[in-house]
Fold these 3 entries.
Entry 1:
Amino acid sequence: MNRLKIVFIALLVILAALVAIALYPSGDDFRPGNRTWNGISTLVSTVDATAIDSLSDLPSRSEGTVFIIVPYMSFNTMELNDISDYVFDGGTLILLDDYGHGNEILDVLGVDYRFSDAPLLDPLVNYKNERFPKILTFEDLALTSGIDALVFDHSSCLIDVPVGQIIAQSSSFSFLDTNDNSLYDNPAELSEQKGPFPVIAYTILGEGRLVAVSDPSIVINGMIDMEDNLKIIENAAILAASTPNIYIDQSHIPDSAMSRAKSQIDSVRSVVAHPLMFFGMAGGVLFLTFRPLWRKRR
Amino acid sequence: MKRAIKAVTVAFFILMLLIIALVPLAMAQPTNIPHEDPSTTDDTFQAYSIFDAYSVIVGFLAVGDFDDASSALAEMAQVQLPETIRDAFDLYYSSIVDVSAQLELIVQLLDEADSLIASDLWAEANDKLDDANDKLDDANVHLEQVEIKIGDIRVVTEALTNTLNDFILDSDLFNSVYDRYTKIIDEVELLRITYANLRQELKEGIELDGLGTKITLDIVPQTVQVGEQLILSGRLTYAGGIRLPDMEVALVLGTTSPIGVPTDAQGDYTASIQVPYSYASTMVVKAAYSPKTAFDIQNYQATYSETNVDLSFNTTDLRLVDVPQRLLIGSPNIISGFVEGDGVWLSGRTVQLYLDKSLVNEGLTDGDGRFELPLIPPADYDLGNHTIKVIVEPHNSKKCSGAYESVDVRIYRAFPEVTVSTARYIMLSSSMVVSGKAIYEGEPVVDAEVIVNFVGTRTATTTDDDGQYSVDVSLSPSSIVMGSQEVSVSVVPADAWLGSMTVRSEVLAFSLLNMSFVSAAVVALGVVVYRSRKRLALELAEAKGPLDLPQESDLWDSFTPSGNKVLNIYHDAVLIVGQLTGTQFEANATLREYLLRCNLRQGGIRKVFALLTYLAEVALYSEASPEGSSDEAQKLYDRLRQELISEPS
């Protein structure tokens, strides 16, 4: 096999791989472009949200806007200050977390409660199984208007929430499965607590609001249409304004290798699509195409 | 065949490379996000947990913790039960609820009786204890039913165990339920003991407190209109008829607060009391005596007497005339009707309109007793089934009762019809006009916000007075690919009663840049493929090995037919050149390959031998040699010889 053939096959493989990667649908969690069960394309299209890749893309005037964040990557000091400024200046922050870095945000906002980081299971009041606890107990507020039930997916809970700030609670049959054996163990032996546990908290901070929900998965495509999961997000958004601008953070969600590859291909494509680059490449291709003819004529 | 195998091998190799490169990439997901696809998760029902929960609830009942038992039972009502065991658990659930309610009532009655005994209100305490006794008997009956139902559930569960592995329950759990059930029996027994103690306490209290008292109660008139005065009178006596003067008698009409009235020197009391505006057919009237001072408590028993008074009032009838079954959200829906009483239309009556539990409008009836109240469901109100309640307030000054009617309605939202008109195809990066019209029931939808989304480009406008809109969508060449693209037009009407409507259309988009790029890439690929194939053909020919050519002597025999002078001359020239350069004419070589292989230096000799080679090729491959070619060959041969002789070795 000569060198030209090897180069040709290698180019063909690379080209096919690039095309396949570019066309393969995104499967990353919480990505607006992901139309499968773990994406958030339904939420983004339903509430007309804007995905942002950096907290610096937040509007300078936060009043009347809503910021949804799923904090699965840690924050630096500047980012935490941006979030704090956003809320205290009048923005509405919907913090969706279970086992991520939400407590960093709660800490900088100066609230007392935290995400438990322990799995909340409910063997009785659930959807299909204990890992999908159903939430049926709500405070009668505008935030919970028209909401009869929520379904969570592998959630945690909130701890140390002041009584007046608890918006929703799990059933009394729920428990924190601290040893991950999916069973409620005798509290005297293993200190597994039994419910009800707070799962949504609402706090007014300065001019703004914080809505903390102990399960980000309520917004994924597979869960958003279950019971009133979408309604709680819509209600929280309406707290900010009748038709608020909604932003969804994408900068604190881990990328998969596929997603990074797609992003890089897209960057290359945008460069190639530039007119100057295009004409340069087209000229090169034409030169290579007609070179054999010129050589023959000579 | 060999080529086909080679091609398949290469294709397989490419495919494997792609799979090896892409599959791990596609499968790789961040591992620290815990969630699960709800559509594929296993559907498990934890019968064990259900029984455990009931066990806990029974435990609450056993210790008299009715609040926790009640809230836990309310949550249990939300549990999704499989159809196969629903009946069994429903039986259990209903029995537990019955027993819970019964026990709670018994405890409440005993508590009240205890409180009354402590306040020396013997007569009422006696009644409470009688009630408690009845309830204890009822509780026993319920407990027997619960015991039977637990047995039924055991049978059902054992039957399910045989068919469904999921419902295998251990006997310890059932034993736990039975243990706690036994504790309820103990609780009932405890309540019985409490009851007996209170009875004894009551009896002792009555005996200790002295002589029995009696109070009579007469009312005039027997039938009274609400708001009118009722005269109550009677006499308080003790020890079989001795009158008790200067005591306070408490008079109570219905649910009003007691009014204290003193007895006179004869032990008689009388009072005129306004009948409260209670629009029921009868009302209970009570006269009660409770000793107050230490002396009285020591010497007189408490007593009470009660009777019923018939009430009269003007009735009110409410007749709804127009109540739409479906209410359009955000727009006025007229609810109308008439209010009459005793055959007369009633004017000036207050009519209240409730949507579910919220007061949404209020008005008065006109001179004909008619009312018309617009009901506007708020724009953000939940769609679906709701209840309208029309209430006519009681008119106390006219002694008229109230009335109400409830109607089930369905709240809905209307949607405009939206048309979209776009070009069928578009050549990028030009702009595109998207236009159309929004109407509702033939009327234009004015001032509606129109949002056009096209490949990430969002453009907004509003509809004009004719409901028409038109937007110029500008597109960036780098932001689009070729092919069918979706145009989405969302119309958000200004009127709250009209819902948003989104209509989609398809536009075939072409990008000149992308098309040029793709065309050039295809041409380049074609050239590369062509050249590769050509080289492949050559390699295949080489791979086949040397052709089966004749031997050198045979070749020259065929080259030197009599009469072909040019080839003879060329033959002589080859001998000379071969001798001088040491290059032999190989059997499988062409004349031109021999010329190249001789490696003659550039210049006269090479040129002469090249021309001679050319003439030989013509003689060899052409049907007829050109005129004079043999003479020309001879000249070249001579010149070659001359050049070679003069060539320094």
Entry 2:
Amino acid sequence: MKKTLGIILIFLSILGLVYAQEDVLKNIEKKLSTAKDISMKMTITTYSYSSKGESLPTKMSMELKTIKDPEILRVDFKEPAILAGQIFLLDGEKKITRMYSPSTKEIIESPYTMTQTSTTGATSIPMVGESGKDFSITIEEVSEKNQKLYKIKGIPQKAELKAQYSSLELYVTKDYMPVRLKMYDVQNRLYMEIVWDEIKINSNLSPNQLRTLPPGKIIRQKTPSTTIPLPFVAPTK
Amino acid sequence: MRRLLYFLLVFLLLFSLSYAQEIGKLEFNTEVNSNYGQDFSLSYEKWWSDNLGIGANLAYNSLSTDFSYKFLLQTPYIKTLLGTFYPGLNLLTNSLALKGYQLGIYIVNDEIYYISGKGSRIFDYSSSSKHSSLDIPIQAMGWYRAFTKNIFANFSLLSFQPQPSEEYYSLDIMLADRTALPLGNLILTQEVNVLLKNSYLYLSTIVNGELSMGSMGIKAFLGYLHPENLSFCPLEPGDLGGEISLSIPISSNIFPEYSLGYFYNSSGKSKLNLGLKIQFLISNYINIESMIKYLYYFAGDSNLNAKISFNFPALEGAMWNSIYVSFEKTNTVEDTSLGLNISYQF
């Protein structure tokens, strides 16, 4: 009887853990996908390694602001210097993208095709949403700088992901806000770290505020510009 | 490799080689100057494509009661400019303003043009220069050729009469080569000018390079203008020297551009040129631009030009309003301007 109870308890605790995992991931997805607007700072550090194994970091930082309705995304690049001051605007309502360059004081405007749908929600975070199926996930609680966080570790299951990563680690606050994502290469070395800072949800961002770029000559292009899947704000089809 | 790929992807986001066009612009400007009265200017441009557009500019000065105009018609086959305009033929005439007309005919990748009128060297940052008269009769015939999408050439034959009894000719060949870079361009331009004056030939030359990559850029030119030539560019007759300017952002809000130039002149007018431009983006709704340009002649003279503008974007950036103050001081003139500019792009 004791043995049976023990098995049941172990089974229930495993079941509870699975539910807890799903809850954490679902809550992150829900938190971000139901937001009317989000603003945040994002820093991406990529690492390359010398022949001696020394890591060589390269940092890129930006400020992201997005509104769900009308669908607008604005990215203000902060560093490195070559990108500082460049602003990218994706306007789903007007079906245009705009790129402001401070050096030329030009605003390049391109049509934004219907097949591209900007998604600023949680589905663009690896392991959150649909992409979670591609990973074997474990969740644990950790403490960091007097703050309790969920550490979500994902081991890729798909061959194409396995060829790139050994594991991913996503840290989120107890109220389901993403803090940091670490990606490890197949040699288990950190090769990219994304840090989200000063995340604000529903701070009443206005479309006018996001659409207003610094003065510049507007140049309209006939063909769509190439858009790429930036982490967390990747366009999906 | 992955890092490189990642950054290349970001670069792709920020840079596109696609065909571009500007649709339309309506601009009103008024400026009060302590020496030259009040200027009013109204301009309109409408472009349906890169080679189909119209434009007009009307300008009036309250003190001199001078009225000037410019009309532009661009079609795939013909370009017509009438009034006061900058022909912008090449590097050695890039500061030439002309009152007259220009006719251009396009044949496939070539443009054959003819220009006639009266002109002078005008610097748009200088009020005294902008209010000087256009009085040198000038005629030019030229051929602009695009060899490829990135290699261009301009051949022109210019005649001008600094005095009624004198007529000089100059032959000018300019070659430009553009290389597309991930976040910008590298443009190299070389130009040779041969002046025919009283049966003698005089050689002038200029080389210009512009490298832009994202928010950073370097521009430089090196040139020599023969003392017998007239100047329609920043080089004075007899100048041998160059200028370099460098743009590196201090932060994502502050964009300075520094420039330094030195020009040796055989007639004792050697000079040093210092410049600083700063753009400061305070918020989405206000930014400040300032410019200071100092020219020091080793013989003792100096020129100073300064300007500060406060810009206020409106209508989600389609309109921008600007108020500005500019100041100029040379050995012969000192003036201050206060201006208002409203520009609407549609």
Entry 3:
Amino acid sequence: MKRCLLMLLCCLPAAAQQRRSSFEDMARETQALQRDDATNPAMLWVQEGEALWSGAAGAAGFSCASCHSAAETSMPGVAARYPAWDDARGAPIDLAGRIAQCRAERQGAPPLDRESPGLLALSAYVGLQSRGLPIAPPDDPRLAPAVAEGAALYAERRGQLDLSCAQCHDDNAGRRLGSSTIPQAHPTGYPLYRLEWQGLGSLQRRLRGCMTGVRAEPFRYGAPEYIAIEAFLMRRAAGMAMETPAVRP
Amino acid sequence: MRSASLLVALLLALPAMAQGLPEPLTDMPGDAARGRAIITDRMRGLCLLCHAGPFPEERFQGNLAPSLAGAGARWDAAELRLRLMDSRRLNPASIMPSYYRTEGLNRVAPALQGRTILAAQDIEDVVAFLVTLREESP
């Protein structure tokens, strides 16, 4: 495991070795919002997530807690190791996908759509249990093709502006694109509260924003391409601390 | 307006090190005032997302690219036209978008497919303004 991490670090471009969360580039007031749970607007969703966690739903009358007991004991570290391999589908699955799957298939409750308040709330509540823990992608060889696909999608130019993720987030991170400082694109804080959204949003919503920004056709929510990009970004951010639920400008 | 594909053919025919495109894209001379407005419009020109320049009224100019100040002293109209239309002919790794190219793009948003970022007359207007930028930034 340690050797694997070392190898990975050696493969990363020089810039990525001084990895930093975009938290560090935020205005002090925005940092303060994130630091203090009493002011972090994302905590409203977390509270809703906590209620959903312990509330029975579906014909069988199960809550998440019926199977997983208290999230504080069963969920630490879970969000830090997604996307994971889903045996049932024979494909990688992200945390929101797993929560939606448990809800529909195990609870038999009405499905939660991508970006719905309920799915964001549960993702934020489960994610919070990993706050401060290092991102730790599973050492599962079945995920390797998705990581490779994610790396390729990250390096591929797209859209009318013909830009790749890497051109902004590797080559120009720290510089200013208009009024925004370009971050290194670490997925440490999702789902997070973005001031511009005035609400909570997932990593996929963020990726969609970057894709429409270069005037490309985004992938549909839940698409395997987004899960591949997430698998790559999580590997690239391995060891960095989880911040969920973060705040961003 | 001449056809975009003819122009692309023209571009391809240029020797690799060609530095400029002397032929204007339209018969109407560029309007520098319009060009300035396009450059400062972040939804149209997008220029100030990456470049800074002598636009004191514009806050939050980017720093991903050289300043536009003095561009007209460094380059003539033909060279500026080429850089705007397809700067990747000069530097394939450039992040500067090709403002007058529709080929070789990937996953362009459906509503924009087959459309260039700027129209031919816009390019001429921007070039007409850029040639007036003769002073380097202080």
